[in-house]
Design brief:
Structural class of chain A: mainly beta
Number of helices of chain B: 5
Shape of chain A: elongated
CATH class of chain A: Mainly Beta
Number of strands of chain A: 8
Number of strands of chain B: 19
Distance between the termini of chain B: 74 Å
Radius of gyration of chain A: 21 Å
Largest sheet of chain A: 8 strands, antiparallel, barrel
Strand content of chain A: over 45%
Oligomer: heterodimer
Distance between the termini of chain A: 40 Å
Helix content of chain B: 10-25%
Largest sheet of chain B: 9 strands, mixed
Strand content of chain B: 35-45%
Helix content of chain A: 10-25%
Strand order of the largest sheet of chain A: 1-2-3-4-5-6-7-8
CATH architecture of the largest domain in chain B: Sandwich
CATH architecture of chain A: Beta Barrel
Chain lengths: 174, 290
């Protein structure tokens, strides 16, 4: 191979590697939200907190892990039954940097959950399992590594409940 | 000092104090009938008397009395203590409602909406024209609504003891519904006219009981409880049977016939003894005029 061509290929390789490294990032995103049950009446919404950690090898794609906690879906009639759900999981995110300050994204994830029903000052029953989830949202980079995010998401069949939720949070991208 | 004491006695101030002590002493001696905590008794020492009454609305009111003996006058009534609970439900037992493993959201709805925790009150009888309350004798009550189309309805009671142990599952199938055909609601009947009470849907396997409440415009009132025996669909009462003794000849009286169709059974064998009654109750009110 000619030296100029070899030099050009080497330059391209180095350039692409440098470019890729420059755009690799980590996003940590704590959020709070409200979750409701869509497939049955009889429960109030529950607040929830969630923390996502996502690695983006390229800006458009990320893989991540998360933890989430729902302190209580309370029954609305008769005896008060409270169902607590805690979960963790992994997900894949695709985002589109259509504007320096607006990045819509979609995330597919899978949550392992533990649920516990309480009433009459005791635990009635426990359950655990896994549910796939889908989220649609947008990140809003504001300044430096700091930004905000908002999303709607849902999980089906979390111990019989289809959960639909909305959250807002911060994002820190390094 | 001694002079002060004699002065105190001489003025008679000691008499009220002695009286007070006497009253307190007698109150203490009369404790045999005071309500006692359920935690003082093992289940096999408790007598349980239960009633599940379905009325015109379709709702089922369940009442439970726990005692330490058979005699409703001599026995001590028990109140729930130490977190012990009486549950009621219809068609599905409390034990079933409370024993589930998966599908928490669905199953917990059943616990939330259909399993009732009985509340406490003093012994209470609703005579429709007035209520009768016996203070100091606790009973437990709850209101359940049957699922639409569920017939016959089975009423359940269970007794949860310390340690979340269900110890007294008892149930009774409620008798078939009926309607009072006569007298008509709001009718005026002269005292001289016997009142024919008739009802629909005769059930030969059931027995009937009639409670009557009367309140007159001269201030007198009366109650009457009569077992009618096997269900024949009719009975006749004369006004002398139910009007208060000494009622004025010119008095007008409001009368409530509270007709009940009964099924009876025994409570859980875990109790010392007891009965449960399943009741269909219908009421008609009318006026008796001179």
């Amino acid at each position: 191979m000619d030296r100029p061509i070899l030099r050009a290929l080497l330059s391209l390789l180095l350039l692409s590697a440098t470019h890729a490294y420059a755009e690799r990032s980590y996003v940590v995103a704590p959020s709070v939200g409200v979750a409701s049950i869509s497939n049955m009446d009889g429960y109030d919404s529950s607040a929830y907190v969630r923390v996502d950690g996502t690695f983006h090898p390229i800006p458009q794609v990320g893989v991540g892990v998360f933890v989430a906690s729902y302190p209580g879906f309370k029954s609305t009639a008769g005896n008060e039954v409270t169902i607590k759900v805690n979960g963790y999981g992994v997900g894949v995110t695709g985002r589109w940097p259509i504007h320096p300050h607006v990045q819509p994204y979609v995330r597919l994830d899978y949550m392992r959950w533990d649920a516990e029903a309480e009433a009459f000052n005791r635990t009635l029953a426990k359950d655990n399992g896994g549910s796939a989830g889908l989220a649609l949202g947008a990140q809003f980079p504001i300044r430096g590594f700091f930004g905000l995010k908002a999303e709607v998401s849902g999980y089906n069949n979390v111990s019989g409940a289809n959960i639909r939720q909305f959250s807002v949070g911060a994002m820190f991208e390094f | 000092m001694k002079g002060d004491f004699m002065e105190f006695v001489r003025k008679g101030a000691i008499a009220p104090i002695l009286t007070l002590f006497s009253v307190l002493f007698l109150a203490g001696c009369g404790g045999a009938n005071h309500p006692a905590p359920s935690t003082s008794y093992v289940t096999s020492a408790i007598y349980a008397f239960m009633k599940a009454v379905q009325d015109e609305s379709g709702n089922v009111t369940t009442t439970v009395q726990l005692r330490d003996g058979l005699d409703p006058v001599a026995a001590r009534y028990l109140y729930l203590a130490g977190g012990e609970t009486l549950y009621t439900s219809l068609d599905i037992s409390p034990r079933q409602y409370l024993s589930f493993t998966g599908n928490l959201f669905d199953n917990s709805l059943g616990v939330s909406q259909h399993l009732k925790v009985m509340g406490a009150r003093d012994l209470y009888t609703d005579y429709f024209l007035f209520n009768q309350i016996v203070l100091g004798k606790p009973e437990y009550h709850s209101l359940n609504t049957p699922t639409a189309g569920s017939s016959p309805v089975r009423a359940y009671v269970d007794f949860e003891r310390t340690g979340n142990v269900l110890a007294g599952e008892t149930s009774i199938e409620l008798p078939a519904a009926f309607q009072i055909l006569a007298p008509a609601s709001g009718a005026s009947v002269t005292r001289a006219t016997p009142v024919a009470l008739t009802w629909s849907n005769v059930d030969a396997t059931a027995t009937m009981r009639l409670d009557v409440a009367v309140i007159c415009d001269d201030g007198l009132r009366n109650t009457l409880n009569r077992d009618l025996g096997a269900d024949t669909g009719a009975t006749t009462l004369n006004s002398a049977d139910y009007l208060p003794a000494g009622v004025s000849a010119s008095a007008t009286c409001q009368v409530a016939f509270i007709l009940q169709r009964l099924h009876s059974g025994l409570v859980s064998p875990n109790f010392a003894f007891g009965i449960i009654e399943g009741v269909q109750r219908r009421t008609v009110q009318f006026t008796t005029i001179p």
